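Minutes, project check-in
Item: structure for the 337-residue chain
Input as provided by the requester:
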Amino acid sequence: MNSPYMIDWAITNKCNLDCLHCRGMAEDELDSSTVLKVAAEIPALAPRWVIIEGGEPLLCGELLFEVIEIMDRNKIRVYLITNGMLLDEEIVMRFAKLNVNLMISIDGADKESYEETRMGASFEKLKESVAIATEYNILDSCPVTIGKHNHQQIGELFKFAQEIGYGKITILGLKPCHDYEKYVLNAKEYESLFFSIVENQKEYNMDIYVDEPFFRPFLKEHGIDYSSDSENGIIVPDVSRCIFGDYIFIETNGDVKPCTFAPVVMGNVNEKGLGEIWNNMQNSELIEEIRDFSTRESPCNECKYLYECGGCRSRTFALTESWTAPDPVCPLKEMAQ
């Protein structure tokens, strides 16, 4: 059985903020014993890493540390995504001992835009939390979710992230959420965004990772250098295409999905083991269809970058109600044939 590329686990639906880009949470949560059972099953699947998120994972209390301890004992890299509002030095010190890679989200380069996007958050507390994480050397990168509400702030976001201590920015294209069509970027806006990212990366000399399947094709099409490490600042993973079905997303209620943003459930950990669900997912007709890039419709199936992109399937389904349609926001639809 192949291993999942990674495991993304929304460990709680509890949150202390109300964010514009929130995908929404399942109503139920797993009980503590089931959470620990799932955590104990993860090492056998040998993912490259585990992302722990929420909601706000720090609202799990000691259970969160028990899960991370299981990962650490099994030498599984953990990335923890938090809004930073509940961090203090004691928590950061414990994370440091457990080799946690901490990601504190921003989404706005100034007090007004940040607190408007993340309602209930404190701009000053954000800066304080980043400073503590920097002091203990566990700050990994700054996740920034980009949509129509903030895409013109790229330069300011780079400047602010660098000022408060970040060395790396992770750009996340807005994925399906409430009022998605209102906020998702179109193809022209993505093109402008990517050029702006490249320009600001050079100016601020910060590492940049863009979580979009058409980012590497965009760089290649325009002759822009990139690497699979931090050697030149623009980092593209060895697998840049859409990884729908190649990883596991665990919802707060135990539903297992082929993508964090997919309206598709492959099983629930209350009923089956995680390994069995993963194996069933690999043999599902939907996953086989999506992995067969030849099923993509025009112009995707005529694109020279088809097999290293494939378009974001969850976004495409949200906007077109088709799993095989071309990604409506791809900035290469015109030029890549």
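Outcome recorded: The longest strand covers residues 139-146.
No further action items on this chain.
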